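task queued by scheduler; priority normal; single chain, no ligands, no partner chains; default sampling; output format set to C-alpha coordinates
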Amino acid sequence: MQLQNQTALVTGAGQGIGRAIALRFAAEGADIAIADLNMDTAQATAEDIRQRGRRAFVHHTDVSDYDQVQALVAATVEALGKIDILVNNAGIGKGQRFLEVSKENWQRHINIHLSGSFYCAQAAAREMAKQEYGRIVNIASVAGLMGPINLAPYGAAKAGIIGLTRSAALDLADSGITVNAIAPGPIETELLKTWPPQALRERAQHMPIARLGQVEEIAHAALFLASPDSSFITGTVLVVDGGGVAAGSYMVEKYRQRKQHDKE
Protein backbone atom coordinates (compact mmCIF):
# COMPACT_ATOMS: atom_id res chain seq x y z
CA MET A 1 0.00 0.00 0.00
CA GLN A 2 1.41 3.33 -1.13
CA LEU A 3 0.51 5.32 2.00
CA GLN A 4 1.11 2.72 4.68
CA ASN A 5 1.59 4.31 8.13
CA GLN A 6 1.05 7.83 6.81
CA THR A 7 -1.43 10.42 8.03
CA ALA A 8 -3.42 12.62 5.67
CA LEU A 9 -5.48 15.70 6.44
CA VAL A 10 -8.24 16.28 3.88
CA THR A 11 -10.44 19.37 4.04
CA GLY A 12 -14.01 19.18 2.81
CA ALA A 13 -13.91 15.37 2.98
CA GLY A 14 -17.55 14.90 3.87
CA GLN A 15 -18.68 14.51 0.29
CA GLY A 16 -17.70 14.72 -3.37
CA ILE A 17 -14.06 14.88 -4.37
CA GLY A 18 -12.82 15.23 -0.78
CA ARG A 19 -14.64 12.10 0.35
CA ALA A 20 -13.32 10.11 -2.63
CA ILE A 21 -9.76 11.21 -1.86
CA ALA A 22 -10.09 10.35 1.83
CA LEU A 23 -11.40 6.86 1.06
CA ARG A 24 -8.75 6.25 -1.61
CA PHE A 25 -5.97 7.26 0.77
CA ALA A 26 -7.40 5.04 3.50
CA ALA A 27 -7.49 2.10 1.08
CA GLU A 28 -3.77 2.70 0.56
CA GLY A 29 -3.00 2.52 4.27
CA ALA A 30 -3.30 6.10 5.50
CA ASP A 31 -5.03 7.35 8.63
CA ILE A 32 -7.28 10.29 7.80
CA ALA A 33 -8.14 13.57 9.49
CA ILE A 34 -11.37 15.03 8.09
CA ALA A 35 -11.97 18.77 8.32
CA ASP A 36 -15.48 19.87 7.41
CA LEU A 37 -18.37 22.09 8.42
CA ASN A 38 -20.98 19.36 7.96
CA MET A 39 -20.44 16.92 10.79
CA ASP A 40 -23.03 14.44 9.54
CA THR A 41 -21.27 13.84 6.22
CA ALA A 42 -17.85 14.02 7.86
CA GLN A 43 -18.78 11.34 10.39
CA ALA A 44 -20.15 9.15 7.58
CA THR A 45 -16.81 9.40 5.76
CA ALA A 46 -14.98 8.63 8.99
CA GLU A 47 -17.07 5.52 9.58
CA ASP A 48 -16.27 4.23 6.08
CA ILE A 49 -12.57 4.81 6.77
CA ARG A 50 -12.73 2.88 10.03
CA GLN A 51 -14.45 0.01 8.26
CA ARG A 52 -11.35 -0.14 6.05
CA GLY A 53 -9.24 -0.69 9.15
CA ARG A 54 -7.74 2.80 9.36
CA ARG A 55 -8.02 5.50 12.00
CA ALA A 56 -10.22 8.53 11.31
CA PHE A 57 -10.39 11.86 13.12
CA VAL A 58 -13.10 14.45 12.51
CA HIS A 59 -12.77 18.15 13.27
CA HIS A 60 -15.35 20.87 12.68
CA THR A 61 -13.41 23.55 10.82
CA ASP A 62 -14.06 26.68 8.81
CA VAL A 63 -10.84 26.86 6.78
CA SER A 64 -11.34 30.59 6.18
CA ASP A 65 -10.75 31.17 9.90
CA TYR A 66 -7.03 31.30 10.72
CA ASP A 67 -7.46 30.33 14.38
CA GLN A 68 -9.69 27.38 13.55
CA VAL A 69 -7.07 26.07 11.14
CA GLN A 70 -4.35 26.30 13.80
CA ALA A 71 -6.62 24.34 16.16
CA LEU A 72 -7.33 21.79 13.43
CA VAL A 73 -3.67 21.05 12.79
CA ALA A 74 -2.84 20.88 16.51
CA ALA A 75 -5.76 18.52 17.14
CA THR A 76 -4.82 16.33 14.18
CA VAL A 77 -1.26 15.92 15.42
CA GLU A 78 -2.53 15.16 18.91
CA ALA A 79 -5.03 12.58 17.65
CA LEU A 80 -3.02 10.90 14.87
CA GLY A 81 0.57 11.76 15.75
CA LYS A 82 1.70 13.63 12.65
CA ILE A 83 0.71 15.03 9.25
CA ASP A 84 2.39 13.61 6.16
CA ILE A 85 -0.14 14.73 3.57
CA LEU A 86 -2.48 17.70 3.22
CA VAL A 87 -5.22 17.94 0.61
CA ASN A 88 -6.76 21.40 0.35
CA ASN A 89 -10.14 20.53 -1.09
CA ALA A 90 -12.73 22.58 0.84
CA GLY A 91 -14.54 25.03 -1.37
CA ILE A 92 -17.75 26.63 -2.55
CA GLY A 93 -19.22 27.76 -5.86
CA LYS A 94 -21.85 30.41 -6.47
CA GLY A 95 -22.45 31.82 -9.92
CA GLN A 96 -23.23 35.48 -10.53
CA ARG A 97 -22.96 37.72 -13.57
CA PHE A 98 -19.84 39.88 -13.31
CA LEU A 99 -21.77 43.15 -12.96
CA GLU A 100 -23.85 41.61 -10.19
CA VAL A 101 -21.12 39.94 -8.09
CA SER A 102 -21.63 40.99 -4.51
CA LYS A 103 -18.84 41.98 -2.18
CA GLU A 104 -19.88 39.13 0.12
CA ASN A 105 -19.76 36.51 -2.64
CA TRP A 106 -16.35 37.71 -3.82
CA GLN A 107 -14.88 37.77 -0.33
CA ARG A 108 -16.30 34.38 0.64
CA HIS A 109 -14.71 32.69 -2.38
CA ILE A 110 -11.34 34.28 -1.69
CA ASN A 111 -11.52 33.51 2.03
CA ILE A 112 -12.44 29.85 1.66
CA HIS A 113 -10.52 28.82 -1.45
CA LEU A 114 -7.41 30.97 -1.37
CA SER A 115 -6.93 32.08 2.22
CA GLY A 116 -8.11 28.70 3.49
CA SER A 117 -5.61 26.87 1.31
CA PHE A 118 -2.82 29.13 2.52
CA TYR A 119 -3.75 28.81 6.20
CA CYS A 120 -3.92 25.02 5.99
CA ALA A 121 -0.75 24.69 3.91
CA GLN A 122 1.28 26.91 6.22
CA ALA A 123 0.11 25.24 9.41
CA ALA A 124 0.54 21.71 8.05
CA ALA A 125 3.92 22.53 6.51
CA ARG A 126 5.23 23.63 9.89
CA GLU A 127 4.53 20.12 11.14
CA MET A 128 5.87 18.46 7.99
CA ALA A 129 9.11 20.44 8.22
CA LYS A 130 9.84 18.83 11.59
CA GLN A 131 10.14 15.45 9.85
CA GLU A 132 11.57 16.88 6.61
CA TYR A 133 8.86 15.22 4.56
CA GLY A 134 5.45 16.23 3.30
CA ARG A 135 3.03 16.26 0.41
CA ILE A 136 0.60 19.12 -0.16
CA VAL A 137 -2.04 18.72 -2.86
CA ASN A 138 -4.24 21.72 -3.66
CA ILE A 139 -7.50 21.23 -5.53
CA ALA A 140 -7.64 24.04 -8.06
CA SER A 141 -9.83 23.96 -11.19
CA VAL A 142 -9.75 24.45 -14.92
CA ALA A 143 -11.59 27.65 -14.00
CA GLY A 144 -8.21 28.90 -12.77
CA LEU A 145 -6.73 28.31 -16.22
CA MET A 146 -9.63 29.43 -18.40
CA GLY A 147 -12.23 32.16 -18.17
CA PRO A 148 -15.28 30.69 -16.42
CA ILE A 149 -18.67 32.18 -17.29
CA ASN A 150 -20.45 33.98 -14.45
CA LEU A 151 -17.91 32.64 -11.96
CA ALA A 152 -15.40 35.46 -11.58
CA PRO A 153 -14.88 34.98 -7.80
CA TYR A 154 -14.43 31.22 -8.23
CA GLY A 155 -12.07 31.56 -11.18
CA ALA A 156 -9.98 34.23 -9.46
CA ALA A 157 -9.70 32.17 -6.28
CA LYS A 158 -8.71 29.02 -8.17
CA ALA A 159 -6.12 30.95 -10.20
CA GLY A 160 -4.78 32.20 -6.88
CA ILE A 161 -4.45 28.62 -5.64
CA ILE A 162 -2.30 27.83 -8.68
CA GLY A 163 -0.05 30.78 -7.89
CA LEU A 164 0.09 29.75 -4.23
CA THR A 165 1.05 26.21 -5.28
CA ARG A 166 4.05 27.42 -7.27
CA SER A 167 5.25 29.85 -4.60
CA ALA A 168 4.90 27.31 -1.79
CA ALA A 169 6.69 24.65 -3.85
CA LEU A 170 9.72 26.91 -4.11
CA ASP A 171 9.70 27.96 -0.47
CA LEU A 172 9.15 24.49 0.98
CA ALA A 173 11.45 22.40 -1.23
CA ASP A 174 14.36 22.62 1.22
CA SER A 175 12.09 21.20 3.93
CA GLY A 176 11.41 18.03 1.94
CA ILE A 177 7.85 19.12 1.11
CA THR A 178 6.35 18.99 -2.37
CA VAL A 179 3.38 21.15 -3.33
CA ASN A 180 1.24 20.42 -6.37
CA ALA A 181 -2.24 21.20 -7.64
CA ILE A 182 -4.94 19.32 -9.48
CA ALA A 183 -7.22 21.22 -11.86
CA PRO A 184 -10.38 19.17 -12.33
CA GLY A 185 -12.75 19.78 -15.20
CA PRO A 186 -16.47 19.00 -14.91
CA ILE A 187 -16.78 16.22 -12.33
CA GLU A 188 -20.00 14.42 -11.48
CA THR A 189 -20.39 15.68 -7.92
CA GLU A 190 -23.50 16.36 -5.87
CA LEU A 191 -23.51 19.95 -7.12
CA LEU A 192 -23.33 19.02 -10.80
CA LYS A 193 -26.01 16.37 -10.38
CA THR A 194 -28.51 19.16 -9.66
CA TRP A 195 -28.32 20.15 -13.33
CA PRO A 196 -31.12 18.94 -15.63
CA PRO A 197 -30.20 15.59 -17.28
CA GLN A 198 -30.20 17.11 -20.76
CA ALA A 199 -27.82 19.86 -19.66
CA LEU A 200 -25.44 17.26 -18.24
CA ARG A 201 -25.50 15.28 -21.49
CA GLU A 202 -24.79 18.43 -23.50
CA ARG A 203 -21.94 19.44 -21.17
CA ALA A 204 -20.29 16.07 -21.65
CA GLN A 205 -20.38 16.50 -25.42
CA HIS A 206 -18.21 19.60 -25.08
CA MET A 207 -15.29 17.46 -23.87
CA PRO A 208 -12.83 15.51 -26.07
CA ILE A 209 -13.55 12.54 -23.81
CA ALA A 210 -17.31 12.78 -24.11
CA ARG A 211 -18.36 12.21 -20.51
CA LEU A 212 -18.18 13.84 -17.13
CA GLY A 213 -15.31 12.97 -14.84
CA GLN A 214 -15.81 10.86 -11.74
CA VAL A 215 -14.66 11.78 -8.25
CA GLU A 216 -12.58 8.60 -8.12
CA GLU A 217 -10.53 9.85 -11.07
CA ILE A 218 -9.52 12.95 -9.12
CA ALA A 219 -8.72 10.70 -6.17
CA HIS A 220 -6.37 8.63 -8.34
CA ALA A 221 -4.48 11.77 -9.35
CA ALA A 222 -4.33 12.96 -5.75
CA LEU A 223 -2.96 9.61 -4.65
CA PHE A 224 -0.06 9.86 -7.08
CA LEU A 225 0.84 13.41 -6.02
CA ALA A 226 0.55 12.42 -2.35
CA SER A 227 2.67 9.29 -2.68
CA PRO A 228 6.44 8.84 -2.39
CA ASP A 229 6.47 8.08 -6.14
CA SER A 230 5.98 11.79 -6.92
CA SER A 231 9.15 12.83 -5.11
CA PHE A 232 10.61 14.80 -8.07
CA ILE A 233 7.38 16.62 -8.92
CA THR A 234 6.61 19.95 -7.29
CA GLY A 235 5.01 23.22 -8.33
CA THR A 236 3.02 21.57 -11.10
CA VAL A 237 -0.66 21.68 -12.05
CA LEU A 238 -2.13 18.35 -13.14
CA VAL A 239 -5.16 18.99 -15.33
CA VAL A 240 -7.76 16.22 -15.08
CA ASP A 241 -10.49 17.40 -17.41
CA GLY A 242 -11.02 14.96 -20.27
CA GLY A 243 -8.93 17.15 -22.58
CA GLY A 244 -11.04 20.30 -22.38
CA VAL A 245 -8.22 22.77 -21.69
CA ALA A 246 -6.03 21.20 -24.36
CA ALA A 247 -8.82 21.43 -26.95
CA GLY A 248 -9.69 25.03 -26.19
CA SER A 249 -11.83 26.70 -28.84
CA TYR A 250 -11.38 23.72 -31.17
CA MET A 251 -14.06 21.98 -29.14
CA VAL A 252 -16.59 24.19 -30.92
CA GLU A 253 -15.82 22.36 -34.16
CA LYS A 254 -15.59 18.99 -32.41
CA TYR A 255 -19.03 19.54 -30.91
CA ARG A 256 -20.46 20.56 -34.31
CA GLN A 257 -19.09 17.38 -35.88
CA ARG A 258 -20.59 15.25 -33.14
CA LYS A 259 -24.00 16.85 -33.57
CA GLN A 260 -23.82 16.33 -37.33
CA HIS A 261 -22.87 12.69 -36.84
CA ASP A 262 -25.84 12.18 -34.52
CA LYS A 263 -28.18 13.55 -37.19
CA GLU A 264 -26.77 11.18 -39.80
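post-processing summary
- The two ends are 49 Å apart (CA to CA).
- The chain has a mean pLDDT of 95.
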